[in-house]
Design goal:
There is one protein chain. By secondary structure, the protein is an alpha+beta fold. It has one domain (7-190). It is 15% helix and 32% strand. The chain contains three helices and ten strands. The protein has helices spanning 12-26, 31-43, 103-106; strands at residues 7-8, 56-61, 67-73, 82-89, 113-116, 119-128, 138-147, 150-162, 169-174, 184-185. Strands 1, 2, 3, 4, 5, 6, 7, 8, 9 and 10 form a ten-stranded mixed sheet that branches. Strand 7 and strand 8 (150-162) form a beta hairpin.
Length: 211
Amino acid sequence: MSNTETFTFGDTRIRDHCFEQWTNRIGSNTNRLIELVQILNQNVPDDWRLARFSPDFIIQDLKTGAVLVGDQHRFEGEPIIHKVIRTVLKHGGTSRDKRIRNYSKAVAGRPNLVIDGNTVFARQYEKVNNKNVIDSAVQYFRCHKLTKKGLSPEHKWLKWTKEPNQGTVKYSWVKEESIHKSFRGHDFWNIPVKRKTNNKNEHKSPPKRRI
């Protein structure tokens, strides 16, 4: 197991800011924040990328409702991906940090990692019932247990519920069989839809014109 601390606050200024925001927004002492960073460093592989299409990341702590927000980078020639925690938010909160992109819609949405007690889960798949994910009031995340060895086949389903007009989000673990069949993978809704027809010639190409 590597002793490298890939999750940090970057510098003392960022650390002090995170501690202050934790106290103001979460309403408890910072012991849990320190513990969360330790849990992440003990379980997340050093070369793990938290997001596919963005350097930004969102980590949800189910115990306190806190959201850790930051960005990731790597140095040339190193196999390690460094993650800098830049601020602490509450469910549905947003950040003004210009180095962090798309937080207004993302923080209230999909966490890259979920921490339940001392266990880290990585979101790997989603089920929604609407093509427009941002407008979906309910979503389901398939979360796999993550350790230094990588992803485990062991997984759980997390129900995500956005409270109307409140800007808050609720999470709860559910059984897969309880998910309604109208919920499907996000990519399902991006497939083009064609109207059914009994006209066999409707999808045929028009006859070629003689020249």
